[in-house]
């Protein structure tokens, strides 16, 4: 073991060496400057153009969405305003009431099963007539001086799945007034009286409806198929029609 005096001398020498080394370490640390961050490369013209296009597209989408929302809000507001505003009576309401009154007084109560105005067709009066009373009602509509529907403009057939319907569109060439007459027919055995004896122009229209929907027109002078072959099975305009060849 070294004497105490020698140990003290060694400890003092170590402290002095440590103190001398500190300034050198601090100087070395101060001499080291922090590394500067590397600058980001500038975007290429292609990238800049792409970024501009994406921004423009996003702005356009936002503008379209805003315009659509505004239009929908304005439409909803207009619809609500229309609902809140009482409708003016249709000028055709008087015609409809007159047709119903004349038919009911002349043919009988219950002849007109339903009545109304077709708002999508200039408020054309529409009457659903009991099929069995159609022949005498047709004569009244043609020959009555207040009505005078002397021209049959068109005939349509419709399959409503629950029933079939025939619609006769009549016109007065003298007054310009019009009316739609509807006849309902049972789907299983559809049959209504023919209008051909009253308006001869119904001839081919009724044949076409018979051919494509299978509605029989009692009293028609020549009821046979007009488009499909005589041996054709089924009626192509019926909603339950299943063609033998799916390509036809």
TrEMBL record:
GO cellular component, as recorded: plasma membrane
Membrane topology qualifier: Peripheral membrane protein
Biased composition regions of type Low complexity, renumbered to the chain: 1-34
Subcellular localization: Cell membrane
Alphabetized InterPro entries for the sequence: NADH_DH_suC (IPR010218), NADH_quin_OxRdtase_su_C/D-like (IPR037232), NADH_UbQ_OxRdtase_30kDa_su (IPR001268), NADH_UbQ_OxRdtase_CS (IPR020396)
Keyword ATP-binding among record annotations: no
Stretches the record annotates as Disordered: 1-96
NADH:ubiquinone oxidoreductase 30kDa subunit domain: residues covered: 128-242
Pfam families according to UniProt: Complex1_30kDa (PF00329)
Compositionally biased tracts (Basic and acidic residues): 47-62, 84-96
Main localization, broad class: membrane
GO molecular function, one term: NADH dehydrogenase (ubiquinone) activity
Subunit structure, interactors included: NDH-1 is composed of 14 different subunits. Subunits NuoB, C, D, E, F, and G constitute the peripheral sector of the complex.
The name this protein goes by in its record: NADH-quinone oxidoreductase subunit C
Organism: Paenibacillus pinisoli
Upper lineage: Bacteria, Bacillati, Bacillota, Bacilli, Bacillales
């Amino acid at each position: 073991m070294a004497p105490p005096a020698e140990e003290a001398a060694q400890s003092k020498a170590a402290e002095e060496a440590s103190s001398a080394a500190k300034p050198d370490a601090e100087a070395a640390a101060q001499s080291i400057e922090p590394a500067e961050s590397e600058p980001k490369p500038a975007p290429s013209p292609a990238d800049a153009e792409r970024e501009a296009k994406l921004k423009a597209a996003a702005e356009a989408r936002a503008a379209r969405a805003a315009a659509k929302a505004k239009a929908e809000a304005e439409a909803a507001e207009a619809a609500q305003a229309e609902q809140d505003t009482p409708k003016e009576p249709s000028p055709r309401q008087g015609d409809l009431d007159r047709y119903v009154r004349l038919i009911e007084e002349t043919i009988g109560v219950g002849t007109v099963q339903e009545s109304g105005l077709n708002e999508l067709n200039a408020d054309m009066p529409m009457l659903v007539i009991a099929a069995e009373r159609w022949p005498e009602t047709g004569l009244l509509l043609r020959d009555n001086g207040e009505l005078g529907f002397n021209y049959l403009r068109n005939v349509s057939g419709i399959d409503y799945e629950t029933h079939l319907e025939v619609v006769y569109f009549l016109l007065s060439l003298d007054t310009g007034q019009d009316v739609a007459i509807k006849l309902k027919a049972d789907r299983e055995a559809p049959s209504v009286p023919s209008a051909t004896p009253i308006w001869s122009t119904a001839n081919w229209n009724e044949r076409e409806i018979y051919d494509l929907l299978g509605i029989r027109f009692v009293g028609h002078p020549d009821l046979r198929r007009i488009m499909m072959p005589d041996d054709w099975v089924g009626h192509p305009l019926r909603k339950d029609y299943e063609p033998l060849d799916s390509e036809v």
